Amino acid sequence: MNILIVDDQQFVREAIKADLIESTFEHDFQTFEAEDANQGIEAIVAIEGNIDLLILDLKMDHCDGMEVINFLSEHASYVDIPLAVISSSDKRTLELVGSIARSLKLNLVGVFEKPINMDFILAETGRLQSQDDHKMVVKSPESISDYDINQLLADEQVLLCFQPQVDMKNKNIIGFEVLARMYDENGYIYPDTFLPLIDKAGLNVDFTKVIVAKAFRFWANEKTLASYTLSINVTAEDLSSDNLVDYIIRHKQAHADIKLILELTESQEIINQASALNSIARLIINGIGISLDDFGKSYSTYERLDTIPFNEIKIDRSFVCDIDTNEQHHLIVESTIALAKKMSVSVVAEGIETESVLNILAELGCDIAQGYVYSPPIEGRYLIAWVNRYVHKDIAANVH
Amino acid sequence: MGHKKYSYQKTVIMRVFSSFLRKIRSEHNLSQEGLRALLNERSHSFDSLDTISISRWERGINTPSLTKQSEIAEIFDDDLFNIYSSDADFVEESAYFVQLSSCVKRDKTVHPYYKNEQYHTKSILSDHADFESMLKLCLMYEANPRLFPAGQAIASSTLLKPLNLVSAFCGLKQLVGHCLFCKVNTKALFEFMNSSIGIMELLNVMNQERANVLVVLSSFGVSPQIDNHMMSVYLNQLATDKAIEYLSFSTCDSKLKQKLMQMKIPMFKVKPIEYQSKIIQNYSFIMSRSEVMANRNMLMLSVIPTREIEPTNVGIAE
Fold it and tell me: Which residue in A309, A313, A321, B57 could disulfide with A292, CB within 3.0 to 4.6 Å?
């Protein structure tokens, strides 16, 4: 992680650096320093905007941080630099600067009053990046070189986990979403680490094929699972591969009884490409359900609803997980569910962890619930045992 | 022992697993092809397995990842902890690893008063006379406002019964490490992680479904060895108590968080807590039993019979 600190006071810069070493929210970083706006701009240009966090003091001797803010906004290649403004000015000035930065469409982490808490700023930076769709993939180069993704995939070092989806009205299991893990001799490797590597190596289609093949074999072997839907994640990019679409359709044709749903993510542009639309049409014709994943997270998801006959939408976990305390998220979820009802599309809420969130979703008329409140992802070999336990507990609960 | 190489671990792992494989094959009267067919039928992890690989595993030329090993062990009603903890070489290697590895880089600072002396660990029960003072010290270190907020007296010991507190002492009564953990139900744990319930409700295991998760609330040692030793205490508990399906951490200690992340354990969530006009980060982690056992560092820590660790003076140039 590259961090540029622009502050005229040396002790502030030193304090920030000390905080960074101490807090180690991010343990692999490099810092750059500048003591005024001009130096800051020079530094940005010199490192070609390769900055993961720009910490900018607002009020400096002879100049102010607004110069840097204006500079960023005038150069398209720099507007995405995560920006944390720090200052000892009063709250209202901070708010004003915040709204200016936002209106200039800068990637604002936040405006922070001095003395600052570096751990908090880093946490906010991380949170912002993870919201920012797949951009969060800025991992330390060290962790990237740790894995030979080609070899891991060639050896099929892939493990399927399943997370249950439960009918909110009668509490019956509806189906399961497939969640992949990879592993090496040291332990498990998680999607936020391996997906970027797969993407970078151009192995998306091969990876999805491995998941589809393993999931189908698993479902076909376990008769207990036949009545449950099997949801697999695909990206819109995946769908531009005819080869993959054929592969999925062949599997579905060979196992017509398996209720396959593809959870579709990724950008609007690709989804609207004729080839992707064509693929979606073919999948639907072949009896494969299409679910619109991460609903509400990217730009004009409403437009997608209009073009494609989705069977289901999934509300993103970032909205769901705190609807009991976050009024904004509550509103978003409420209107999404209302819209889905009008369009006769079923709604899945994922990321449910507590009873109170579950109760609110039930009141709002959400159809299907998914999250840790029912179970963390379950490794394939324990799935049947989980189903049996859930079903029996449920029967017991209804008897008493 | 000083000339042992780090890679020796892998050699030991390879040897332990190859003898396990040969043992089960002869016990179950299976040919290599018979074993291949059985594994292939039972798990999708062995879709492309061939007898050549099995033969290489048995001859110790190669070995499958711990994840695959654990699947194979379970198919034969065994588990990795059982297999590895009964191998003297592996346990010795793990004990050696505890002394050397700090997991945390840059942690080379010498502690002001602890100079690698002899230390001993002690489990302190909630009805013990020292429990309250030891717990307070531990909470002071952890500085997690969600654990017994100031003012709320650490009241009756019956409510605290589920808490396990293990402390490490050197000299007369010098505290050099501790760990604090309890066994609860995942449902209550997620409510706790989301601040829907407090610590006392979390500890009220009587009102919960059966305990299935071990949650660590604090874990610390002044030296890398003691730090690892403290971690081995609850990992060993998890490994031996088969009713526990998950391991979780809920902590405000950024050092522990860093150590877990360096062990490649993904953070489940981070929640800022405002306390006395300061923002404190609360980190949560959760992993399944099989994730723990497939993590080489954690497996090595779990097999150490914790009472037998002898402190040594490794790392001190004299």
Answer: A313
